[in-house]
Amino acid sequence: MPSSRPLPERLDTLVIGAGMSGIAMGYHLKQRGLDDFLIAEKSDGFGGVWRDNRYPGAGCDVPSHLYSFSFALKPDWSRKYALQAEILDYFESCAERFGLGDHLRTGLIVRSLTFDESEGRWQVRFADGSQTSARVVISAVGQLSEPFTPEIAGLTDFTGPVMHTARWNSSVKLDGQRVALIGNAASAIQLLPEVSERARELTIFQRTPNWIISKPDRAFTAFEKWAFAHIPGWQRLYRLGSFLIHELRYSALVKGSLASRFTLWSGKRKIATGIKDSKLRAKLTPDYPPGCKRILLSNDYFEVMQRGNVRLVTDGIARVLPDGVETANGEIVPADTLIMATGFVTTEFLPTLEVTGAGGGSLREAWGASPRAYKGVAVAGFPNLFMLYGPNTNLGHNSIIFMVERQAEYIADKAGLIVDGGLKALAVRPEAESRYNADLQTRLSKTVWAGDCPSWYKTADGVITQNWEGLATGFACTLGRRDDADWEGV
């Protein structure tokens, strides 16, 4: 439960966000003895995206034992790929287990951060007008926290319910309705089975087809759960095996590799054997290499797409009408309900915050169209400010929790230099940040993400801002190296 104590006027560390990253950060701050911290959360509790995304079928595409903290293993996961409710329960239990509720303040939306150079503190202003001051600020808002709704003419004129998958309204009636689903990616393929069973008609508006691979999901047996809980070291060995298998999959994301060619062949074969109708098969076959956009996991997607009440539209949307959708070809598609499976604001990073650093510099202006950071956690000119799941820390092949844990450990050490070490300000050197990102973008140019396809991995100018290049273990090594010369402290 969140603390009901008043907001302090001054504190050592402010963590923004109580999702997976905020929980990991809170744990590592406590481990480091940095107990004077507050977690500011805009919603009403822990969980982040798993609290927000409650649409039917919501779940994780990383195995449960791997999508969990190394310091809080869970032996009784119900299945290999857990669903939303169980994942949320896990994160809430972790927060309770490590005493993070005392540090949580809910309903707090951070609006601006301004660095006071004379004091070496961040002045923090919240949406409700309240303020505080912190020596260290750590953003844990993630890359998938702000829902994205495209600008579509007439959208506000629609007379029926309109809801984004990340703001699901379970009271909206779907049974027997004509449902228009705008978007056909990760969230869409998870909710499709249930919505297609409930709706009288389901029309899916697709901009770009996706590569689909099978999801090796099943329930764990009672014996397996007993073994995870009672055989010493078995769960960690199982988790390590899963991690290493996923590490090997990175080779499929390298342009021209044997693994990438095999993935392309198997993806085409899956479509050829899974879709009977040649016209539908053509609509669902991507014209870009697997991995350029996020590869999706599903065992029933092609089956759902061939149901009698399901129709796929690829003509594009001209406008939304009060009672339907008009396509670019002038067809009117009647609809009672609109579901926006249109993803998140991903490439902007901290899109709702005004951040003013040393010398009055704006973070938004410093970043321009392509956000960047040193090791994904710090930006030159913005002392004592750190990010979890920042630019170029996402993965296409393994668990993001592994990445976030390494960042939380790294940031906790830097925060300790400020709080315990007596530094007024600690900032990464501009030349270190430039060198790091130039090298990273060179390496990223050799991956499938650099291909010609629309993707949330990169900005409009083609800069890949989301993903790390290489193995997750390579990122751990990068953060583990001594880098004192890249930082300037006063």
Characterization of the model:
This is Flavin-containing monooxygenase. Its EC number is 1.14.13.-. This protein is an alpha/beta fold. It has two domains: 10-146 and 345-489, FAD/NAD(P)-binding domain (3-Layer(bba) Sandwich), CATH 3.50.50; 155-210 and 293-340, FAD/NAD(P)-binding domain. 29% of the residues lie in helices and 18% in strands. The protein is built from 13 helices and 20 strands. Strands 1, 2, 3, 4, 5, 6, 17 and 18 form an eight-stranded mixed beta sheet that branches. It has a five-stranded parallel beta sheet with strand order 7-16-8-9-12, covered by helices on one side. A three-stranded antiparallel beta sheet has the order 13-14-15, with no helix packed on it. α1 crosses α11 and α11 (400-419) runs parallel beside α13. The chain is globular.
CATH C-level class of the largest domain: Alpha Beta
Annotated CATH architecture of the largest domain: 3-Layer(bba) Sandwich
Main sheet attributes: strand count, strand direction, barrel closure: 8 strands, mixed
Count of strand segments: 20
Mean pLDDT: 94
Helix content: 25-40%
Rg estimate, integer Å = 23 Å
Low-confidence stretches: none
User: How many individual helices?
Assistant: 13
Q: Can you tell me the CATH superfamily of the largest domain?
A: FAD/NAD(P)-binding domain
N-to-C span: 38 Å
* Structural class by helix and strand composition: alpha/beta
CATH topology of the largest domain: FAD/NAD(P)-binding domain
Q: Quaternary status of these chains? A: single chain
What percentage of the residues does DSSP assign to strands (E)?
Answer: 15-25%
Note the overall shape: globular
